[in-house]
Queue: 2 jobs
Job 1
Amino acid sequence: MSSLITVDDLTNEEILSILDDAERMLPIARGETHLPILAGKVLANLFFEPSTRTRMSFETAMKRLGGAVLNLGDVANSSVVKGETLYDTMQMMDGYADIAVIRHPRQGAARYSSNAVNIPVINAGDGAGHHPTQTLLDLFTIRTCHGTLEGLNVALVGDLRYGRTVHSLSEALARFGCSLTFISPSSLTMPEEIVTDLRSSGTSITETEDLHGSIEQLDVIYMTRIQKERFPDEDEYQKVAGVFKLNQSDLVSAKKNMIIMHPLPRVDEISPDVDSTVHAKYFEQAFYGVVARMSLLCRLLGVEVPEVVSE
Ligand code: NCD
């Protein structure tokens, strides 16, 4: 793997090995120990779309390992407003950084960017396409909470059409033999080509509009935000806004170890009264983004992760 554009760039063995390294890096992410194995390396953070967690967790991952970070910053203050093409902007990166992270509103932009440079490129979200590093931290969370990735019952809920996190995650979970329930409004179902692909590889898939019907069978409920910014017009968004909401009272029939995840930001999909339940894992999940990304950065930069011992 020289770049990470979709989860297809990783084998299951590579995914598990990234998660193993990530686990060993927890003390570094917590600031309990220092391991500057990326000293002298420079990461370029190129975010052409808003981001809080992904951008900041890449930055803290790099810095906790002794590396440095360059930020493109506000696109409005870059040469993009002068009409520079993405291809040209990317070509500079070979001279400025050792690795680049890109988020862009256009599907396919990360693949396109990786063709413009020699350094590794990491897709941090390309429009309604893919978000493979979110998948790594999602898998890390699931494995930490359930002890395995194999054979779980996972529901993906919300905007499955435009949500890139669920596109990447469903493909990875299917490869680990999970059964998937896709819960969405009929206008926001999982893209047909993904459903067909997953079914043809033997994955059990149920598609429904009913969030509350199957809660007692689930090991994971993965909630997502309706991707307002991808709707062609506001009226279409209003028709589906707020359609799914998880409240504490919905969880009475849930298994004790069922976990609720969310890539965040949440809008109104999960009521704050869920936060105090044993099921809520979304903030822990966001923290795991740091170790998942530390581990990935080391892998792509060819730096081996030593055994980590707390100080
Ligand atoms: C997600 C994204 O950008 O796709 N956010 C994230 O990276 N944690 C989800 C979203 O914006 O809804």
Job 2
Amino acid sequence: METELLKADIEGIKKGATFIKNGFQVGFPTETVYGLGADARNDLAVAGIFKSKQRPRFNPLIVHFYKFDDVLKYVELSPTAVQLANNFWPGPLTLVCKLRADSDISPLVTSGLKTLAVRIPSNQVALEFIRLCGTPVAAPSANRSGKISTTNSIDVLKELDGVIPAIIDGGLSEIGLESTIIDVSGKTPILLRHGGTEMEQLEMILGSLEIRKQSKLVNSPGQLASHYAPDTPMRLNVKTRNKGEVLLGFGPNESDLCLSKNGNLTEAAVNLFSHMRSIDILAKKVGASCIAVAPIPDIGLGMAINDRLKRAASND
Ligand code: TXA
Ligand code: MG
């Protein structure tokens, strides 16, 4: 299959939406990372996502909506969920909610769970695309399972060339990290994944927020320890690099590639995944045995950056 790069103009977006209506998968931009979309109500189309990504079937997908009223047709929103939606949608927040009994979402999307992860993205191309698809769009990040997420169309092409018919080229993802995921299906909200919506902002609305520990991750099988992995091993919180290591920096100190010279976390988030790809290539080129990564402050977006780095460095 030839993979076509579509412009993010009305023609390109329309063409992408037509592929979705016909049961295909399409790469599309969001403000977090690129998504690999398919019609969430079409079993075969959703099965195609798992096949294209080589994703285990037990790992459920997030469904993307164009407007709030549409979300209500598919899930039950608790008062807390409504409050979060009012404050953070459209934007980088995913809510895990009770699936409505009358929903026609493909059971493959939820991996058979009774909950559904939903979000309304803020990226204008994403919104127009979903609107024209005329159906909820199931979309994981547009990368091979376990590999680094993509923040531009060229990286999507590198991951999925020949596997999907089209990618909408919407430039660089504005945030660069996946959405924050909160489970609001039970009595108390639980953070399942750090992401583009900062913990501090969430705590302003919710008070303190329970974080699900690794050992209790039965409800979020996708939060496997090893994820986002470059081929070269990584070593984190490195102040002084060892011989034979390449250094991914943060701040003004000398490095091979730097997430942000000014120590700006927003900039570091935008750069994280593409720099992880680039430094992996550099490491292989110079024969480095390890990618050393400078310390990143564990506040704001730094919490999500550190979470992704930890998973990238994990051998589990
Ligand atoms: O920013 C994002 O969230 C991007 C863009 C494309 O929207 N999407 C994304 O999808 O990161 P993905 O599939 O790479 O990550 C979704 C995570 C997985 O870890 C999955 O296990 C979890 O969400 N998830 C999905 N449905 C769930 C559910 N019903 N309960 C618990 N976790 C769920
Ligand atoms: Mg992913």
